């Protein structure tokens, strides 16, 4: 099981050396895991099983000088720290609990089945838990490679209508590539992508441009047009795609800008905005045509935690608002899809989660069920734990 | 074989470029570009405001040089009254088209690569596409249309600037021929088809420069460094292209017939 070495804990190298501040930060962060996302959850009463590999005293990694937390000698800084009860997620076992009260506590992924280390898809059950809604977007056995680099390797995934979905997965695993496939910016080498049942790769150009009007996409940096001010950026799709009068366009754009808190910045150009403001302006532009499917490519990157939380709330509010409108008007229910690494955002916002790794779905389904999944990879990723199937490789 | 890789790569790039350029020209001839006529007019404005003065200035300087060199050469062979020949030929047929092409490549071509390239790496082109716009039409065809709308007038005015500069050099500065004598020879050695041929040379150059700029900018990759590399490549290709068109145009229009009252 791959592990991240803890800086400053290697006796062979650091014995007798003064502790560096950065080392202390790293250690404190490790002690604080799992994150506070579990605060509001009751500890599980069910017996937990620690994988033998996680508790075995003599592992090959030990040869590299890594130390088991339970046997680590407490350092002065730790001894002075106020004692706190360990925060444990349901289904997670505290290693070394009851042995040394002051020893650093860690959690470990449980219920790991023994796996064949040569099988890179050992954790990919491909389990699709029912969500009760038709899929707005479907990936059917999609393969995509850039040169020798295979990104998607038989991806089967559905994004349900009427829900806020989230595609989660480690970096470089093909999440952004998925978005580009949905809107027809990339075509699969093999397989098919369906949007409301229509095959994107087989669409003629004119149909493709028409189909794209169903989408609103928030790119990572907003992708605002540098030659236009914020107001014109948001108004651009309306002016080009609709016959609305200028007064109506002004009202719609002003309303959208107010929603994202940029009512005052309409005359500013993108280079005069902060990263967060550009992202919010991009959000307003993505929503201005009331699209059926909205895609957010890492909406939380570069934002502070408070703004991330506010953006998440905004996404929920707008989703609810559009849901109500569509339920009244009878149109297709809105499918909002976020790509992110931020588990906090996933906890707050997601109604449906697909966990993607190595170009395939590990598991997907309603968010609550995924957060309680037995799959070791899913549990590790959704808890942000360093120990588990996912390493630095 | 390793050495074949480079020419193969060139041929592949040339094929891709031809296909891409054909698509842009098709969007203009198919009149699809008129859906974004407002954007085309904006590009016209940018061309006029940002490139006119610098092109006219360069051509004016070239016209001065041509007038001075022509006047002194004709004096050296005992025919100072024929200095107008240089103004008529050198300016109209060669130097003004070249100066125009150089400045188009340096100012307009690289500008297009830099602008489209930065749009590409900041996802703006993808954003256009996912909003349901044909980005080739919106970004490239509008620029080509703008070039075709603006540049003929700009070029004809540039020729005027070159002629005026030569007149100043020959008649006002060197002063060995009267104004009437200068214009007698000047008009004798050119006629309206020469102006048309010169205009054709320049417009083919301008079209090629805009298309090459669009190709390298639209297909830029590899971040800011990639945009810089694409800009440099486009400049090299455009300079070669300008000379190629200059040479072929001269051969085609004046190679077999000098179109001048000389000899038989």
TrEMBL record, chain A:
It comes from the Bacteria. Keywords: ATP-binding, Nucleotide-binding, Transport. InterPro entries: AAA+_ATPase (IPR003593), ABC_transporter-like_ATP-bd (IPR003439), ABC_transporter-like_CS (IPR017871), P-loop_NTPase (IPR027417). One of its GO terms (molecular function) is ATP binding. SMART domains: AAA. The keyword Amino-acid biosynthesis does not apply. Coiled coil: none annotated. It holds the Pfam family ABC_tran. Residues 67-80 have a biased composition (Low complexity). Residues 137-383 form the ABC transporter domain. The keyword tRNA-binding does not apply. Residues 1-85 are annotated as: Disordered. Residues 7-28 have a biased composition (Basic and acidic residues). This is ATP-binding cassette domain-containing protein. It comes from Paraconexibacter antarcticus. The lineage of its organism: Bacteria, Bacillati, Actinomycetota, Thermoleophilia, Solirubrobacterales.
TrEMBL record, chain B:
The chain crosses the membrane at residues 44-64, 136-157, 164-189, 195-216, 236-254. The keyword Transmembrane applies. Keywords: Membrane, Transmembrane, Transmembrane helix. The keyword Membrane applies. This is ABC transporter permease. It comes from Paraconexibacter antarcticus.
């Amino acid at each position: 099981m791959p592990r991240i070495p803890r800086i400053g804990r290697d006796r062979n190298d650091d014995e007798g050396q003064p502790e560096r501040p950065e080392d202390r930060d790293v250690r404190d962060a490790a002690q604080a895991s799992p994150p506070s996302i579990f605060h509001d959850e009751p500890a599980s009463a069910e017996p937990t099983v620690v994988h033998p590999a996680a508790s075995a005293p003599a592992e090959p990694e030990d040869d590299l000088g890594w130390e088991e937390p339970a046997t680590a000698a407490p350092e002065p800084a730790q001894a002075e720290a106020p004692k706190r009860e360990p925060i444990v997620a349901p289904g997670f076992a505290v290693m070394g609990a009851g042995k040394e009260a002051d020893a650093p506590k860690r959690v470990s992924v449980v219920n790991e089945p023994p796996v064949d280390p040569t099988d890179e898809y050992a954790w990919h059950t491909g389990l699709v838990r029912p969500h009760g809604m038709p899929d707005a977007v479907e990936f059917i056995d999609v393969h995509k490679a850039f040169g020798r680099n295979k990104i998607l390797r038989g991806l089967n995934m559905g994004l349900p209508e009427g829900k806020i979905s989230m595609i989660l997965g480690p970096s470089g695993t093909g999440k952004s590539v998925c978005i580009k496939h949905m809107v027809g910016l990339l075509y699969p080498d093999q397989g098919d992508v369906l949007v409301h049942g229509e095959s994107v790769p087989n669409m003629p150009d004119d149909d493709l441009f028409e189909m794209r009007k169903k989408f609103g996409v928030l790119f990572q940096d907003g992708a605002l047009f540098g030659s236009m001010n914020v107001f014109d950026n948001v108004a651009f799709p309306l002016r080009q795609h609709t016959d609305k009068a200028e007064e109506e366009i002004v009202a719609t754009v002003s309303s959208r800008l107010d929603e994202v808190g940029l009512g005052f910045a309409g005359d500013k150009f993108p280079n005069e905005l902060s990263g967060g403001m550009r992202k919010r302006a991009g959000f307003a532009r993505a929503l201005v045509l009331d699209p059926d499917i909205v895609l957010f490519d890492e909406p939380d990157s570069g934002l502070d935690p408070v703004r991330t939380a506010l953006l998440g709330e905004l996404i929920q509010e707008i989703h609810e608002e559009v849901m109500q409108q569509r339920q009244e008007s009878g149109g297709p229910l809105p499918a909002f899809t976020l790509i992110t690494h931020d588990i906090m955002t996933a906890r707050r916002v997601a109604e449906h989660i697909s966990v993607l790794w190595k170009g395939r779905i590990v598991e997907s389904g309603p968010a609550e069920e995924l957060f309680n999944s037995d799959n070791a990879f899913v549990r590790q990723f959704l808890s942000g734990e360093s120990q588990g199937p996912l390493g630095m490789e | 074989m390793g050495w074949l890789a480079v020419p193969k790569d060139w041929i592949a790039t040339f094929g891709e470029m031809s296909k891409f350029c054909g698509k842009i020209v098709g969007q203009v001839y198919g009149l699809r570009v008129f859906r974004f006529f407002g954007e085309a007019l904006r590009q016209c404005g940018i061309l006029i405001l940002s490139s006119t003065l610098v092109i006219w200035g360069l051509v004016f300087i070239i016209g001065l040089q041509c007038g001075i060199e022509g006047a002194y050469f004709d004096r050296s062979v005992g025919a100072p009254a024929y200095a107008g020949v240089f103004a008529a030929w050198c300016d109209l047929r060669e130097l003004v088209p070249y100066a125009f092409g150089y400045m188009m490549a340096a100012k307009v071509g690289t500008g297009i690569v830099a602008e489209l390239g930065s749009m590409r790496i900041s996802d703006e082109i993808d954003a256009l596409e996912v909003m349901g716009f044909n980005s080739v039409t919106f970004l490239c065809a509008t620029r080509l249309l703008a070039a075709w709308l603006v540049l003929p007038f700009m070029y004809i005015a540039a020729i005027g600037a070159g002629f005026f500069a030569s007149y100043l050099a020959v008649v006002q500065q060197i002063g060995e021929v009267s104004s009437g004598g200068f214009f007698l020879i000047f008009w004798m050695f050119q006629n309206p088809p020469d102006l048309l041929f010169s205009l054709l040379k320049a417009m083919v150059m301008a079209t090629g420069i805009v298309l090459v700029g669009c190709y390298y900018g639209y297909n830029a990759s590899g971040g800011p460094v990639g945009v810089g590399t694409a800009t440099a490549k486009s400049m090299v290709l455009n300079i070669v292209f300008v000379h190629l068109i200059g040479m072929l145009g001269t051969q085609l229009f004046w190679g077999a017939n000098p179109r001048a009252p000389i000899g038989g």
